[in-house]
Specification:
By secondary structure, the chain is of the alpha+beta class. The protein is 24% helix and 37% strand. It has a single domain, classed as Hypothetical protein (Archaeosine Trna-guanine Transglycosylase, Chain: A, domain 4, Roll). It contains three helices and six strands. The protein has a six-stranded mixed β-sheet with strand order 2-5-4-3-1-6, sandwiched between helices. A hairpin with a 2-residue loop joins strand 3 and strand 4 (51-65). The radius of gyration is 15 Å and the shape is globular. The chain starts with 7 loop residues before the first strand and ends with a helix.
Length: 136
């Protein structure tokens, strides 16, 4: 398989409260480590009335490790067992969440929480974003 130019990732959002925080701060605190780097597309997923759905996506602008944060932010992360923060520019929230079952991931054996942290090839990310745009 060819090396992907710019793979993306799926990150789950655990609650409506966290979703609001992410879209307000344009920042996702992550407990998992991947090859986070500037320019990486991140699809944000959450359980909705339609099943697991994409809420939106962001392009990573900055990756901060605990030691790079203010002492208050570092303490907040440690309390929640988070290991880094991803800041997005831009961060887009879909008007209507896109059910994962309506995307190229419909037949993917990784379901629910197993998609958290999953790397997706660039063409799958593009396909999902195209589908989300059609739905809006």
């Amino acid at each position: 398989m060819a090396q992907e130019d710019n793979p993306g990732y799926v990150l789950r959002v655990g609650s409506d409260e966290w979703a609001e925080q992410i879209f307000q701060l344009k920042k996702y605190y992550s407990g998992i480590m991947r090859n986070w780097r500037r320019g990486t597309p991140i699809l944000l997923a959450r359980k909705t009335a339609q099943g697991d759905s994409f809420l939106g996506y962001g392009i990573t602008d900055k990756v901060e490790m605990l030691w790079e944060m203010t002492p208050e932010e570092e303490d907040y992360c440690r309390e929640n067992k988070w290991r880094c923060a991803l800041t997005f520019q831009p961060l887009i929230r879909f008007e209507t969440p896109l059910p994962i079952k309506d995307t190229v991931l419909a037949g993917d054996r990784r379901k629910g929480s197993f998609l958290h942290g999953a790397m997706l090839p660039e063409e799958q990310v593009d396909s999902i974003l195209d589908r989300a745009e059609e739905q809006q």
